[in-house]
Amino acid sequence: MDVILLQLLNGLDKGGAYALIALGLTIIFGTLGVVNFAHGALFMLGAFCAVSVQALLTISKKVKDESIKFFDAYKEIPYLEAWWGDTGAMIIDYAVPISILIAIPLMLLIGLGMERGLIRYFYKRPHAEQILVTFGLAIVVQELIKAQFGANPIPTPAPEVIAGSANVGLWVGLGESVVYPWWRLIYLAFAGVVIASAFAFLNLTTYGMVVRAGMADRETVGLLGINIQRRFTIVFGMAAVIAGLAGVMYTPILPPDYHMGMDFLVLSFVVVVVGGMGSLGGAVLAGFVLGILQSFASMNEVKSILPGIDQIIIYLIAVVILLVRPRGLLGRKGVMES
Amino acid sequence: MMFAGLSRNDKLLFAGFTIAALAMPLLAWPVGANYPDLLQKFAIYGIFAIGFNILFGLTGYLSFGHAAFLGVGSYAAVWMFKGVTMNVIPAVIFGVLVSGMFAALIGFISLRRSGIYFSILTLAFAQMSYNLAYSVLTPITNGETGLQLSQDDARVLDRMFTEQTAGLPSTNLFGLEMSGYPGFYFCCVLLIIAFFIALRIQRSPFGMMLRAIKTNQVRMNYTGFNTRPYALTAFIISGMYAGLAGSLLAVTDPLAGAERMQWTASGEVVLMTILGGAGTLIGPILGAGLIKYFENIFSSYNDGLLAESFSFLPDFLNDTLVFVIGPFVGEGWSLLLGIVFMAIVIFLPGGLMEGLARIHGWYRRRGQGDTGRNVAKQAAE
Fold this sequence. Notes:
The structure holds two protein chains of two kinds.
Chain A: H1 2-32, H2 39-57, E1 60-64, E2 74-78, H3 79-84, H4 86-93, H5 95-117, H6 127-149, E3 165-166, H7 168-171, E4 180-181, H8 182-204, H9 206-216, H10 218-223, H11 228-250, H12 260-275, H13 280-297, H14 300-305, H15 309-324
Antiparallel strand pairs in A: 1-2, 3-4
Helix pairs in contact in A: 1-8, 1-11, 1-12, 1-13, 2-5, 2-6, 2-11, 2-12, 5-11, 8-9, 8-11, 9-11, 12-13, 12-15, 13-15
Chain B: H1 8-22, H2 24-27, H3 36-58, H4 67-83, H5 88-110, H6 115-134, H7 138-141, E1 147-148, H8 156-161, E2 172-173, E3 176-177, H9 180-203, H10 205-215, H11 217-222, H12 227-252, E4 255-256, H13 263-276, H14 283-299, H15 303-309, H16 315-325, H17 333-347, H18 351-380
Antiparallel strand pairs in B: 1-4, 2-3
Helix pairs in contact in B: 1-9, 3-9, 3-12, 3-13, 3-14, 4-5, 4-12, 5-12, 9-10, 9-12, 10-12, 13-14
């Protein structure tokens, strides 16, 4: 029981990341009809927002270390700490939450720039060319990040207060054996909130209603005198923000490096396909389901029966789904079925 | 017989290609690429790209998992070296056959879907193979270390004729060692054969069918053709090309690792084909050669070398140039590749071959324009 709960949490956690990226991917596909292979790069850019914020906050000056008397020793003290003492230290400690505030406008700008600067020229071109050009863009972004930040993962810890683990087992009456890092729980809740607000935006606001109408029949909405293109552009920006936030929040779990985007992209694409191209609910559902299945497949009990299953389960499910139900779990009939 | 049904242009093209391929050491000499290791890579990746082009350029299916076949070909060839003989002929044949069968299996499933679903299915299969090669299949693939020759391999056939020698044996073609120029010429001959087969496919009714599938699959189905067997055949042929390339990689360096199957490797062959020009005969080979050449040149550069090669310039110019070009060489070579690739997809979707065709057309039109004007001038006089 303990193990199952733990794996369930692990799966939900991983699933949260998949679901957030896949949600953005499928929003972009549903609105603009573009297959965005650079979406993983947006996730990675979000993560590196956190890295940059941390680097900015910890810009340091050299001061003489008074505690060492035998020789002249110097230590680096961040300016923030030098100016504001403990408050400054606390700000540095909260680098990751702070970078969320910075990531939102930044990712929005990047998303808008990407759509206006590149993607819009590819609406009319075949899917293969869309894949290729965004693939090229992903390589370029990845290499730029590598040139700037190097190839090694950069640790960006969560704030001190929540660095420990929560006693999840006690909450559900399983005793003290199940502990789980606080940050991962927060990540899970965060993913839920972001997904819920994206759905609320699309389903409960007039703006979202127009966007959904545009997804269903772009031409008619255009004929009603609505500038649907502009709305779609903004939606693209939102998808970029969602991917970026997923990246920012993921940094304490996985120290970001330049190829994390590509790693997640391949899986997220599989998630989108399993959920159904263009289906928002499908992407979220498939994200969590695949995440949970993956973490259960990596249990030793399962592995001893089916060796290697943890490595391939996601792809295997994708293959089965594509062959049996090509429109995906929640895909609408007739959307990209061939 | 061999050339029956080929037009005069095609015969010329083939003759020209053969001469160019055989003379590659000479042609590559002015650009400093005339050493066998690099030339072998040109030929091998040329074969890989020709094969990929049969599927993508001709039939219109964008596979994002083609490196899986390359990897399988490599593994099969190394196993042949380990188990039977160091002679390269059985290894190459075995590599091609195994990857052909592997392609038949994957193609049979993947080709039930087209478009982006096909791309993702092939990607999924390639990632599965890669992950399995790293983990569970370690007895076959030797996991992270990669499959290598060792002293106590069986090598049944070799043992029957020769005594075991100290040190690892090297690959050979009936005694001729497959390293350096002999190795290159072995690959080169296979490249020429591969090119010839691709040429025949492109000009055959079968090739016409493949192009029809690319143009409008739905219409083909309505006219009563079952397109799937044709697409599957193209997929298998293309997989066998990849297997050939993979086993040649093992011939020139008897070592096979799982990273050959990773999806970045699949992406590389897509880059090569697009860069040169998908759907053309020469384009993919050109793209493969260019990418391998520049990868080799640029990735060995660093700021110091760069400063040295611009040392004839005044200091401030030298510094600026190093500053501007520096990020794109050495480690940053992939950045340059990504930018060039994006530029090609955006401005020149037909690749370099389309660029050449455009320049050619522009010259011809200008020439015609001139004669036209001259005629008008004469008439006016």
